[in-house]
Predict the structure of Substrate-binding domain-containing protein.
Amino acid sequence: MTISRRWVSALLIGAALALPASARADEVRVMISGGFSAAYKQLVPQFERATGHKVSTAYGPSMGTTENAIPVRLNRGEPVDVLIMVGEALTGLTEQGKADKASRVDLARSPIGVAVRAGAPKPEISTVDALRTALLNAKSVAYSDSASGVYVENELFKRLGIEEQMKGKARMIPAEPVAAVVARGEAELGFQQISELLPVAGVDVVGPIPESVQKITIFSAGISSKAGSPKAGAELIAFLASPQAAPVISKTGLDPIAHPAAK
């Protein structure tokens, strides 16, 4: 079923929240990556109470080849109605015919941040020179196997002119939050989206990397091309993109993307 942009836009007014629980309650099956998960976990109970729908969730990275990665789940044929993931990765799925392009809604912007083990000294990272020095001084560095980590590995180190120096002490972490590795003391510095660093106990978030070398990740949602409950799925997306959801999204380290009301 193809969901028109006009219909999705109309839902973004907040009608899904204003209406009483649906006469017919549906199950909405969701696959979601880590960056939007903290906000999502707080918002889903509100959506279920407002609509009567029930949401079941599978978690995994937006990209990569680990067992729980969303593309791998889809290739296994796992059922899903809504995909919430890095926008670039969702674009790839729409190009493969696995998601409905017209249903896509961008939900939030997410900056890359740095974390250290709780109680450890926080390095200065507010300027490019300071970030470079912090990386050179660190004994070990970890970064994710999703969008932020791909940028760190393929672009950030090169832009800082320290690609060679980072070899041997910087590594990509598959299928686990980078902050968990830092909390165990297995990496001195951890790089990931701030929204993924904040929920993990045992680390302190130093802050975002400087704007001139920052890469903002867009988290987006869309309807699976094989959705069994596309209308209820679109209601969930509309709720997550609504003004009512914005304060929760902001508290989890994300910048919610405002959507104009449909006319």
Observations:
- Residues 38 and 143 are 19 Å apart (CA to CA).
- Residues 112-213 form a domain with the D-Maltodextrin-Binding Protein; domain 2 fold (CATH 3.40.190.10).
- The radius of gyration is 19 Å.
- Residues 12-22 have pLDDT under 50 and may be disordered.
